[in-house]
Structures are given as C-alpha cells and as structure tokens.
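User: quick one
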Amino acid sequence: MSQTVQEIPARVASAEALRVDDLAVSFAVHGGQVHAVRSVSFHVRAGQTLVLLGESGSGKSVTARAIMRLHGRRAKVTGRVELSGREVLALSDPDVRALRGSRIALVPQDPTAALDPLRRVGAQITEVLLLHRAAPDKKAAQARTRELLRAVGIPDPERAYRSFPHEMSGGMRQRVVIAMGISCDPDVIIADEPTTALDVTVQAQILDLFAELQGRLNTALLMVTHDVHVAADVADLVAVMYAGRIVETGPAADVLKTPRHPYTQALLDALPTPQTARGELHAIAGSPPVAGQEFPGCAFADRCTHALDTCRTAEPRLVEVAPGRRAACPVLNPTEAP
Amino acid sequence: MTLYLLKRLGSAIPILIGVSIVVFITIKIIPGDPVASLLGPTSSPQARAELTARLGLDQPLPIQYLSWGAHLFQGDLGDSIAKHVPVLSLVLDAFGNTLVLATFAAVVAFVLGILLGGVSALRRGRVSAAISNAISLFSISVPQYSIGLLLIIYLATGAGLFPTAGMYDPINGGGWGDLFLHLVLPGVTAALVPAGIIARMFRSCVIDVMSMDFIDAMRSRGLSELRILKHAFHNTLPTLMTIAGLQLGYLLGGVIFVETVFSWPGLGLLVYQSITQRDLPVIQAGVIVSALAFVVINVVVDVLQAAIDPRVRA
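Assistant: Done. Structure below.
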C-alpha cells in the first residue's frame, strides 16, 4: 500500500490520515513523573470523524496536544504518531512547525482567547497563509482570506476581515478560528471542545459547519469533547477515555447505543432526557480520578456497579469485542476460553 | 479615535484645576502673614490693612483663588523673592534642562528595563534570569545619592572619564559632545530606579502574556518562537507604556537628589535651592510645572494606548 503512495492522489477517501500507536504522555513534576495518557491507539481516515469522549482530566486534550507536539519540554511523549505517513514524534522542531497549521490544524476550545486581541482578524488569517506559503503573495493571501471567511459562513466577510476579535460574537470568532484551521487545506483537523464556549443555539450551527466543511474538503476530523450529544451528532467513530486510557472504541452508532464498558454505560445513563424527573439525574457515584492517579487494576472499578474483586488487581486490556469494536472490560465482555 | 482624543484631553482639564486648587490651598496653609513679612514688625495696623486690601487678601478665598488662577493662566507666576526675576522664565529654563536629563535617563531606563525584564521572564529558572533579577533589585534599592557620589569618585575625579558636575563645560564647553559627556553620570544615576521598576513590571507582564491562550494557538498554527515573541511584545506595549509614562513623569518632576549631587541646573536643583531660601513663588511654580508635565504625559500615554489597543478605543 505504502509503496504506491506516489501514484495515488494526495488524499484518497480511504487513506489513513492520522494513526496513533501506543501513545503515552507523562509530565515531570516535583515528585517524579505523572502519567496523563497511556497506551492510546487509534486511527482516522480522510473524511472520517473520530470523537475522543471523556470527562475533564481523562486525558483527551493531552492526547490531542501530544499529536501536534504542543507539550513543552516538561512532557515525555512516547509511541508513534503518523500523520499522512510521516512520523511526527521523530521530526525536528522546524519540521513539526511546518506541519502545524498546514497539514494538521487545531481548532481550540475558546476562540476568544485564541485570537490576538490587538490585530485584525484578516491579518491573523493572512499570516498563516503566508507562513505556510499557501498563497504566492500578500495580495493573493488577502483574497484567499476573504474566500475562507465566506466559506465558514460569515455573512459580511469584508467587514469581518477588518474587524478586531472583540468586535465579533463568540460564534463568529469560532468561525474565524475554523477558517484559520482550514486555510492551508490540512489532512487532519483537531477540534478541542469547539462548542463548549458557545451558546447552545450556536453550537448546532458550528457542528453543522464542521460536517459541511469536512464533506467538502475530505479532511479527517479528530474532535475532543465531554458532550455525548456532540459525539452522537458528528462522530463516525468514538473512543471513550477514562483516566488517561481508551476504555471503549468503535463505530459511534454502536458504542453509544449498546455500550460494552460500564463507564460508557454510566456516561449515557447520566444524560438527562425530557422524561427525566426532577432530582432523578443518574450521577456516576464517586469522583473522577485526578489526572495522573495510579491504579493497580481498572481505574473505574471503584465507581463501577459491575466491579469484581479481580478488577482492582488486574488491569483490563482493550480487546476486540465485536467486529471493529474494542472494550476494556472483562466483566461485561467475558472471553469464551479462560 | 479623534473623539477619544478630545474626550481624553477634556478629562485632563478638571485634573489641572484640581492641582491648582491644591497648590493655592498649600500657600494659604503655610504659616506666616505675607503682609507682616513685607512691611516688617514695626508697621502700623493702618498700613497693614491698606496693603491687605491692595493685595486683595481681604477678599473671600474663592475670589482670591480666581484672581490667582487668572494670573496663573496668563503665565504670570510672580517674581522670585530671592533672585528678583520672573518665576516663569526661571522655571521654564530649569524645566528645559530637566527635560534633557529626563529624556536621556528615560531612554537608558527603558532599554535597560526591557532587557533585564525580558531576560528574567523568558529565561526563568536559569542563571541569566537570576542575574537580571539581582541587577534590577539592586538598582531599585540603592539610594541615588550614594550611587551618584560613587560614580563621581571613581569615574569622574578618579578615572577622569566624565565631568563631575554641571551641564556644559564653563571654559570651552557647548555642543552635543560636551552635553553628552555631562549627561552620562547623572543620566545613568537617575535611570537606575526607573530601570529596576520597568524591569520588574515588564517581567510579570511578559509572563502574563506568554501564558495566554493565543500564544499557544499561534504555536499550533506553526508560527516560529521568534515571531510569537514579536506578537507577545506587541501585547505588552499597553502595560509597558503605562509604566514608562509614570516613570518619565517622575523623572520630569525633577530628580532632586541627582540634580543636586551633579549640580544639574534643572527643576529639581531649582526647587531644592528655593526651599532652602524659602522662595515660595518658585516652589509653587515648580510644583505646578511638574504636575502639568505629569498630566500631559498621562494623556499622551492614554492616546498611544488607544492607538495600539482597539479595545481601549471602543
């Protein structure tokens, strides 16, 4: 497959855009190393959307940032991250910089904080285009910026171009940040909680925009969210994270309909529905683990209603439980042979 | 922007009126009857009453203030008691000399402060940052007169590199080179405290800006660290200018110690001499000119800030 890379167009529908193998991230702190993420593996194809789903502290944002090598020197990142065939973790710093914003783009959580407050929106997008030579000259970059602003559904691109970030609404700023993300036609877009800072009504518009752009550009999308509804809305694939590990992964429709891990079940049960009576929300008992907390067995065992004694001593492995589906719970997914 | 400028200039007027009221009240509070001191202890009560009426001192205070203010507004600040010349020309000459010294010291302080603060913020945890911190702390804490005297002893009288005092050489002085040589020691001495303050403020400002989300967002877009630093510096400018304005205002107020130690013929030295000679009109004028300079600098800083930060204009 990889031998024929030169003959095939840059982005084929089924090409693997991002592959993460056995990723681990740990941070140096006073007392030693804190393991934030361990043995995380997944892959996303062009045109596909993978949602990393989990509570805050589950390691999903750490994973996303590690893929772009945005953790500083305090972090130790091991494993493999393959971006369109290039091994990101082995690249030199300048080579990684050349990939960031051009081959892999990040749409951050808070668009307001992600923009330079002192510069006009248009200039900030133009800067990225010129930096990655996605436009031959300044004039072309400016024209392309206006095009991008129109493409992300900003009603008056000319005005937006000349606006300062504080002069726009949160939804418009998010569109600006998305325009910046797609500006160099990346292979992979990482969206870190892209709707969390927005009103519910605007959230749906932004998710629709992601879907529309992805359909048009055939980009692989890795979306990080704590919101099951967002996952259900956009995901082709879902990877549920807990305490720095993936506990269940598979096609979104299957995972969210018939979860095979108690944590996924609990997460879905905790969702309020219009039928939920007052005071009857199913909170998950106990509290989520602190980032980096160590467990001898299953990290979820203490909060799990299915837990057996063995769960607290033996660490469950992520195993295939159905075609294309993997889960890390031997209790819900007993193997036939002992 | 024009509207903002007008608004800002308008708001400076009440401040200036406030300053003039404070100065006026200070004159009134200071003990001693000006009529008695003018006529002497043996004067008749009748002569005193006559002079009191002629000077308008029998009028109610608000009327006295208005008449004093009207003179002030026309640039009439009275005559110096000790030197018998109009106060205005005396103070303006001295202020011009202070302006030269303050501008030189301000440039030294900004360059030094930004370098020290920048190193200390960007190289945190390293030896270079610790050295920068030590230098800025030292420059804030050491008294100006002692540093000034040490510089005179070692670099002026000792090594003979610089003149010990004054602004120009009295024999064959004049010209830019001569002025510069005279400027170095007092300029550096006056710059030390502001440099230390600017360094410490700039340090915390750079740390703040560098920890903002948009810096990280720029990194995720592939910008080089150098380019990110450039944008970060841009974002420190509003804070930097506020500090710089305050420090420049303080320097323009006349650096009394420095001007006295180096006999620099500026506002500080003039006010110092006037205090020892109880030359009240000159002291008043000195205070008013310093206050005016402070207000003007602050207006300029606000306007520059608005030019840099669009959120201030809104």
